[in-house]
Amino acid sequence: MIVSDTRSTPNIFAALRDQLAEAAVAFAGAPGAAGDILAGMVDDVDRALSERLEIFPVCHHSPASGLAMVRRLRDKQPSVIYLELCEDLRPLLDELRNCRLPVALQAFATDIEGFPAEWAPLSVVAPITESSAEYQAIAYALDTPGVELVLVDRSTDHVFQWAPGKAESEIPADDEQPEDDGLHGEAVGIEIGDLRPRFAELEEHLLHHGKVRHWSEWWDQYVEQPLVDADYDTYRQVMVMIGSLFRRLRRGGTVEDEDRERYMWTRMREHLAAGDIDPAQALYVCGAAHAASPVEQFGLDSDAPFEISPRSATKWHYGLIPSSHSAIEAQFGLAGGAVSIAAATWAKGLRRGRLQSFQLEGQQGTKKRAKKPPLLPAAPEVEVTDQLSSFLSRPPALDPLDEAELLEWSVDIVRLARRNGYLASTADAIAVFETSILLAGLRNRARPTPYDFQDAAVTCLEKDRVPGRRDVRRLCEILLGGDRVGQVGYAALPPLARDVLDRLEPLGLDLSRRTLQRALLDLRANPDLRRCSDLLWLLRRLLPQDALRPIMGSRGLGETSIQESWDIGLGKYQRSLVELGYEGVSVEQVLEQRLRRAVAAPDATAAIALGAVEDALVYLGSVRLADELGNRAVELLAAERTVDDAPAVLRRIRVLLNYFRSIGDGLPAWCERFVTAGYAHYCTLLPTAFAAEETGPAQVAAMLGFLFGMENLALSLGCDHTQLELAVLQSHPETPAKVALLWAARFQLGMLTMAELRERCDSMLANPLVLPTVPQYVSGFVQAIDPAPALKPFVVELLSKAFGTLPDAVLLPWLPKLITTLKDQAGELIPGLVREAGRTFPGTLPAVDAFVPPWSVEFTTVATPVVAAPRGPVTELLAAHPAACDALAGLLGIEGGWQDAGPAGNHELTGLLERFPATATALATRLAASAARS
User: Fold this and answer.
1) Helix (H, G, I), strand (E, B) or coil at 731
2) Long-range contacts (CB closer than 8 Å, 24 or more residues apart) made by 593-601
3) Is the pLDDT assigned to residue 745 strictly greater than 70?
4) Pick from 428, 383, 381, 386: which is nearest to 409 by CA?
5) How sure is the predictor about 298, in pLDDT bands with cuts at 50, 70 and 90?
6) Which pLDDT score is estimated for 605?
7) Residue 877: closest CA among 926, 915, 916
8) DSSP 123
9) Once rounded to an integer, what is the mean pLDDT over residues 421-440?
10) Disulfide-capable partner of 476 in 405, 454, 703, 916 (CB 3.0 to 4.6 Å)?
11) Going by C-beta distance under 8 Å and a sequence separation of 6 or more, which residues neighbour residue 397?
12) Could you give the CA distance from residue 337 to residue 451 in angstroms, rounded to a whole number?
């Protein structure tokens, strides 16, 4: 049975309500929206304070909220604390004692179900700082026997269920805002109590009349400082009033906020009823905007039902990631240094109020205490009085000038500036001191705030340039508290992260440090470090590139380093290592899963699959996985309808074939199937690729490189050479670069002789209408060097003729286009062309004058008349094998078939054989011996 709170709840704000309504009428001249808003604010305060379950309104990362929480916990000593935080994050709170604050609670999901695929991965973070009210409540509950901590906000799954969509999430909701900091990634931020007006005109009005630059400064000046030392009733009433004001002036719908409030009140009523708990012993900690909710489920006396939708089938992983003051500021749109200044205000408030904050036992990064102060008996409940009227009717009590504190700041900032390269002196310290007082006076402040001090330091110390990495404003942030960075302790890390740290222990480094550390691995002298090397390369593949940087050493197919040097920064990228632990129990398992997902994805291609095969062999050494991924590569290649990835496919399959041939185990079955499938596939698509405008010359050149480079292997596996010849004959390109590629392909197949190719290019250079497209023809020929290496001398010849014969008026206009075309389309092939030119042209200056280009020499053959055709074993051998002899004659530049001359033929080849009988006899003997053995 629930025992009711006996506190009386009269309407103590009736007089204030009437006073504000009269003021609104006097201001506006008639009752209207202003009166309704003011009266509604008072009603919200009255409603929140009249609730039997005590509501503690907070603002995120507010020192005033933290100090009020410390006082209230020591006075009330509740046995149950309901906290506005995602309910499925509760198990993570016990791990906070193993971390150094600030850290963030994280929920992470990679395999999602029930959400759009483009949302993946899903990530939610909730940063925790020592000065926040939620941490004080958590520390009190976890370290006080008999106290129960219950998280009542919707689950992280519901965060995305209720999200309006990624397109609309560019405008942050109440307590969820995207951020742009590396520590939190692209996670959705969860905070307790976002108190910022969503009414732009109101915020602009407050900043203008408050004489401040940004919202964080206004909040610190007009809310934090007056409430730091305020009593509990004043704090509660003011915070609820501000939350009500901002909520009533918010533009846009509040459906999600109201659903959250229904969710939380439903959970609290269920828990109170299930445990038969007295509401007087409970405390509800929530954002000030939720403290006086208008939903019908508000309060313990409400019986309005609310159906909570089930969670999706998405599998969520939970953990802790490091956070920092700057990450929190970026996450929630706060001004730079706002969280650091709040931490300094918190420490000052503890000292001035002689308060002892709550800290988890064994918390890293906290001061050790000789003895934990005992909790005094709970103070009796005092009747709530109207503190809001007096707070609103009197000016805030301004602290007097603390000259010692300001003087210390001024001296320290000059010392810090000198260390960072600024030419600052004692005179600058005096100037900063006096300017701070002047700025505070101009802004109607008796005591300079940290923001006044920042402006004064920038005015007095900032020069025309920043001599170091930090400007003066950043130095002020460091002076006032710095960007404190948290760290997740070893015991709170997921199993994978702990396994990584254990396996890298032989390096002898402190991997928790956030600075880069150099690791030297002599793998020949210390072979035991080979395992560390393998793990480092694995992490290099999985983590951001800056987390691990190899200075010396490399890893590839068939490569083995004997010495390696690494820059390791795992401490700085601890968040990425933690998120890696959500995907598996070892880095090897994570990489295997990622490779399988990559080749099974809807956008997977044959090039991606071949890259996965290479990674499986390089990083995992798994032949079984490589065969599985290779079979998938064959399927993807056969299913592709474009050749956009042809260059990547050619490059990767060449590397894999060379590797398998080098190890001596023969080609795997999937490699053979890939070559045969690729040969047929590219032969089929070759005519279309030549004609398609969207297919570039690089893709066509890669296709030809695959067909010509893999032809011998493909033919040995059963492919038909005729298919390639038909594909080339059916190709009819229009663009100059592709035309050059087609000529090269026909030359490689013997369909076009060198003389014909030279004639076509000479006529091209002689045609003024074709000259503007010559750079594209040259680009095509350069790219054809890969499938047809014999064209290297011809490309040198073509360029030499162009530079030697064309006049400057023609050559100079298209020379820049030639250079840019070659750079963009065939940059990697230019070095080979340059080496070929070096072999062609003379290497000394005197030899240039006597140099005769090889292509300028006319090769002529004088025919020797023969009276009768010779008879003997040579003639019989040539008659038995005419194709080989015709091919040899073609290479020698002799046209026509010698066998068609008849018995009285007097052809050049017959004369050549008669002039060199020893060579022909030796060749005949060798062929006869070979025929006998077969």
Assistant:
1) coil
2) 594/542, 595/625, 595/629, 596/628, 596/629, 599/629, 599/632, 599/633, 599/636, 600/632
3) yes
4) 428
5) confident
6) 93
7) 926
8) E
9) 89
10) 454
11) 226
12) 9
CA nearest to 247, candidates 139, 333, 185, 174: 174
3-state secondary structure 760-826: HHHHHHHCCCCHHHHHHHHHHHHHCCCCCHHHHHHHHHHHHHHHHHCCHHHHHHHHHHHHHHHHHHH
How many other CB atoms are there within 10 angstroms of residue 728's CB atom?
19
Nearest to residue 911, comparing CAs of 862, 860, 873?
Answer: 862
Chain centroid to CA 461:
37
Question: What is the enclosing helix (H) or strand (E) of 190?
Answer: strand 188-190
Q: Which residue has the higher pLDDT, 698 or 834?
A: 698
Mean pLDDT for the stretch of residues 840-848: 76
The secondary element (H helix, E strand) that includes residue 649 is helix 646-663
Contact 595, 612 (CB under 8 A): yes
Phi, psi of 349 (to 5 degrees): -65, -35
Rounded distance between C-alpha atoms, residue 732 and residue 817, angstroms: 25
- Spatial neighbors of 564 by CB under 8 A, at least 6 apart, are 520, 521, 523, 533, 536, 550, 552, 553
179 pLDDT exceeds 70? Answer: no
Q: How far apart are CA 291 and CA 274, in angstroms?
A: 23
Q: Are 706 and 649 in contact (CB under 8 A)?
A: yes
CA-nearest of 207, 204, 178 to 191 is 178
Give residues with Cβ within 8 angstroms of 317, minimum separation 6.
Answer: 107, 108, 109, 582
Each residue's pLDDT tens digit, 454-474: 889 998 988 777 887 788 888
pLDDT in tens, 121-144: 888 888 888 888 999 999 999 998
If you average pLDDT over every residue of the chain, what do you get?
A: 81
Q: What is the DSSP letter of 620?
A: I
Taking a C-beta distance cutoff of 8 angstroms, is the pair 336, 329 a contact? yes
288 neighbors 243 (Cβ within 8 angstroms): yes
CA distance 707 to 719: 11
Structural contact between residues 701 and 787, judged by C-beta atoms closer than 8 angstroms: yes
**Cβ contact 682:643 at 8 Å:** yes
Cβ atoms 437, 408 nearer than 8 A? no
pLDDT on residue 13? 67
What is the Cα–Cα distance from 660 to 850, expressed in whole angstroms?
A: 49
Cα→Cα distances 608→216, 223, 645, 649, 699, Å? 48, 56, 9, 9, 16
As beta bridge partners, residue 567 has: 518, 549
**What are the residue ranges spanned by the domains of the chain?**
13-50, 55-313+335-356+387-393, 403-479, 493-581, 733-857, 873-933
**Is the distance from CB of 825 to CB of 737 less than 8 angstroms?**
yes
Query: Using 50, 70 and 90 to split pLDDT, how confident is the model at 683?
Result: very high
Average pLDDT of the residues in 288-315: 86
Residue range 653-671, pLDDT digits in tens: 999 999 998 887 788 999 9
Helices 792-805/830-840 angle, 10° precision: 70
469-528 confidence digits (pLDDT tens): 788 888 887 787 667 788 888 888 889 999 999 999 999 888 888 888 999 998 888 988
**597: how many CB neighbours lie within 10 A of its CB?**
14
Half-sphere exposure of 520 (CA within 13 A, CB side): 2
pTM given for the model: 0.72
Residue pair 126/101 in contact (Cβ under 8 Å)? The answer is: no
What are the structure tokens assigned to 480, written together? Answer: 């006032």
